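FW: tagging you since you asked about this chain on Friday. Here's the raw sequence from the shared folder, copied in full. Didn't touch anything.
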Amino acid sequence: MDTGTHITMGVALSGIATLDPVVQQDPALFTAVMAGAIIGSHAPDFDTILKLRNNAVYIRHHRGITHSLPALICWGIAISSIIYLFTPEVNFLHLWLWTFLAVILHVFVDIFNAYGTQAYRPFTRRWVAYGFISTFDPYIFSLHIIGIIAWILGATPGYTWLMIYFIIVLYYIKRYIDKREIVKILDQHFDNIKKVATSPTIKQNVWRVAFATEQHYYVGRVEDGHVEIDDKFYNIQIPNNPLMDIAMKDKNISAFLSFSSIYRWEINMYDDFTEVRFIDLRYRTEGHYPFVAVVQIDDNMRIMNSYTGWIFSEEKLQTKLNIDGTFI
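HL: got it, structure written out here
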């Protein structure tokens, strides 16, 4: 989810914590729990700092190890221990419990959007992205804002938030059922579907889809049960040749491939170099595919420049290649 929603979830969890008799009877513990819940609800995304290095490192590791099963335990212990240093009089067990729950909630909700996480590490590095809740869902966010306002106006926080989260659970169930219906519809219209990536929109009846069959990639949307295909590409296997071998070893291409589940590739030849481009098909926006990885290889089979990330114009991409590229 987005940062704003994660933080409001921390507020919600601290409200639910008021139902804990130990928290209820100790104002200092409640303050510590609120701090732990809000920080814990955002902590796994502290890996955003990796952007300061480069996009390849960020894409490969964001929502990776910081969202893994061991990290859940480490975040909970680390955050509650730091808070405990400043409030040693509070009950550490209950402080840790609510902080730990905040971290778990963060990772749990992240697995339902199209971006996903590596939440099952260390057992597998597979990206878990169920794709039936938006990264920013206005309905979920609005419910949290309503809950915060109700709390400020004097509503009982524990039961107010339990009621709101009951509604949110029903909403998750609805979106899951919606996705299952979409996958069924696609299976009825296309043969031998190998992969499907779904992404809901703000409109409840409109979903973005990208899927692969043995021969083609399709990108489109499903609206009121009707499939509309926007783009269709041949599903061509990556060739086994020296040029592509060099491209695949580039850090930016490797990071892209570790993350993207449905993509196409193309080779463009110029006077002094050859460009290999990988294009993620899941994020089509106004006819454009903004998430790409590009490597430029000269006639001596040396990497000139490479880049991966979100780009919304060819001019911007070329600028990034010139700025971020390295000569090897």
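FW: Strands lie at 195-200, 206-212, 216-223, 226-234, 263-269, 273-280, 291-298, 303-310.
HL: agreed, and Residues 272 and 298 are 6 Å apart (CA to CA).
FW: great, closing this out.
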